[in-house]
Amino acid sequence: MNAASSEWTKFWSVRSTWWCLIAGVLLMLAYSGAVGLAANAGVERSMAPHAVVTGAAFYLTQFAVVALATLFITSEYASGSIRSTLQWVPVRNRVLAAKSAVLVPVLFGYGVLNTLVGVAISAPLIPARDSSVGDVLATSAGMGGYFALLGLLCLGLGTALRSTAGTIVTMFVLLVMIPMFAGSLGGEDALNYFPGFAGVNAMLNAGEPNPIFGGVAPYAPWVGIALCMAWAAAGLAAGSTVLRRRDA
């Protein structure tokens, strides 16, 4: 409990946390407003507001989450304060557990907030495609779960790589570059099992049109969350292994 309280204080006491959170909300506002205006003008095909925020989460806002979760661990390696952290909490896996206990509720709530912000800005612009309360709640829960699990994946990779740039580049490759190449080579079916696409599918009902690459969601939202959980577990396992075996 003391370790989690300490990590909570560290999380909120640095400016990077606030900048990342604010940047994510602004990116959601910008994307939702732009797509809403395009749909209103007939330039872009009209999507329901909850589908608009799903696209914003995938294309833009998720990278604010990536930066936030990555800096939560890699900034300690950059400054050398990780040595003090490990002296205070000698059982190293407890450090990861404490940081995870901070990230999960914060990022889940952040995902819900971003959904509400995106719907609030896009709904008045595309009145022809309303979202039901159930759609908004489902997207909120899916986005919150995706952001929380994405944060854990970044935490694990950041612990393993010990580099801010290295972790962010790795996440960009995993979220965007590899799926893009896989899609160009005819591996569209495999895309749904990468963390970013699994997160998008977690925000959609099975059979609902996918706003990212067309088609429909191939599985139920809980399957998307389960896939994200598997990726997060793999990242944390890698981070835990490196943290236990290497000196800080």
TrEMBL record:
<feature type="transmembrane region" description="Helical">
    <location>
        <begin position="219"/>
        <end position="243"/>
    </location>
</feature>
<feature type="transmembrane region" description="Helical">
    <location>
        <begin position="18"/>
        <end position="39"/>
    </location>
</feature>
<feature type="transmembrane region" description="Helical">
    <location>
        <begin position="168"/>
        <end position="187"/>
    </location>
</feature>
<feature type="transmembrane region" description="Helical">
    <location>
        <begin position="51"/>
        <end position="73"/>
    </location>
</feature>
<keyword id="KW-1133">Transmembrane helix</keyword>
<protein>
    <submittedName>
        <fullName>ABC transporter permease</fullName>
    </submittedName>
</protein>
<feature type="transmembrane region" description="Helical">
    <location>
        <begin position="143"/>
        <end position="161"/>
    </location>
</feature>
<feature type="transmembrane region" description="Helical">
    <location>
        <begin position="102"/>
        <end position="123"/>
    </location>
</feature>
<keyword id="KW-0472">Membrane</keyword>
<keyword id="KW-0812">Transmembrane</keyword>
